[in-house]
Specification:
This protein has 6 helices and 6 strands, in the order E-H-E-E-H-H-E-E-E-H-H-H. The protein is α+β, with helices and mostly antiparallel strands. It has a single domain, classed as Transposase IS200-like (Alpha-Beta Plaits, 2-Layer Sandwich). The strands form 2 sheets. The chain has a 4-stranded antiparallel beta sheet with strand order 2-3-1-6, with helices on both faces. Strands 4-5 form a two-stranded antiparallel ribbon. Strand 4 (111-114) and strand 5 (117-120) form a beta hairpin. The longest helix has 22 residues, at 79-100. It is globular, with a radius of gyration of 17 Å. It binds nickel (II) ion (NI). Nickel (II) ion (NI) binds next to strand 3. Nickel (II) ion is lined by residues 1, 62, 65, 67, 149.
């Protein structure tokens, strides 16, 4: 992985901007290597799309992290709320599933002590890595980067061989797990927006 999967969250809610999101599983455990848990994430993404009105431009599910490229359609939005809507339901479903199957080993592994409380964690704490994008070139680079994840890892030979990404849809080869939205022309305000200093990861 060239782009660091940082724990800290940097969020800028700027109208017209796209957001490149990365969520890592707690302690990089491969919690997304099964269709069951991937299904929970798909469900959370679909619900969040309806609730918060954002475009989904690209995605990839890796065994221990996911990348999404999203684009809020509204002038006013909160990435913090979108991130919570994407992550929280998955964590709840994972905890309920482990409890119902009495999988104490994994319940224990994914539970941390925070002060006096015990907290279940599916995701690495910190909200995920969020990265603003606003012009065409970086957006295309990020889409390629997202789709290349499983190839870089050696899981498949071609991006379109990976079932859990939007690569096939982008290549015009039908749909994957989720239908993605077309990228439409953005407003001048968005394209001339000033970048917060130092927000580009070194590999872009
Ligand atoms: Ni990655």
């Amino acid at each position: 992985m060239n782009i660091p999967h940082r724990k800290r969250k940097v969020t800028y809610d700027i109208p017209g901007h796209a957001h490149f999101l990365t969520f890592s599983c707690f302690r990089q455990f491969p919690l997304l290597s099964k269709d069951r848990s991937r299904g929970w994430v798909v469900e959370a993404i679909q619900k969040a799309r309806e609730l918060f009105d954002f475009d989904l431009w690209a995605y990839v599910f890796m065994p221990e992290h996911i990348h999404l490229l999203v684009h809020p359609r509204q002038e006013s939005y909160s990435m913090g709320r979108i991130l919570a809507a994407l992550k929280r339901p998955v964590s709840c479903q994972a905890r309920d599933f482990l409890a119902s199957t009495e999988n104490d080993r994994w319940l224990e592994r994914l539970t941390v002590q925070e002060g006096r409380e015990k907290v279940f964690r599916f995701w690495q704490a910190g909200g995920g890595y969020d990265h603003n994008l606003w012009n065409d070139r970086p957006i295309r680079e990020v889409i390629d980067y997202i789709h290349a994840n499983p190839v870089r890892r050696g899981l498949v030979a071609q991006t379109t061989d990976w079932f859990w990404s939007s690569a096939r849809q982008w290549a015009g080869e039908g749909s994957g797990q989720m239908v993605i939205d077309p990228i439409v022309a953005r407003s001048n305000t968005a394209e001339t927006a000033v970048a917060p200093a130092g927000f580009l990861p070194p590999s872009l």
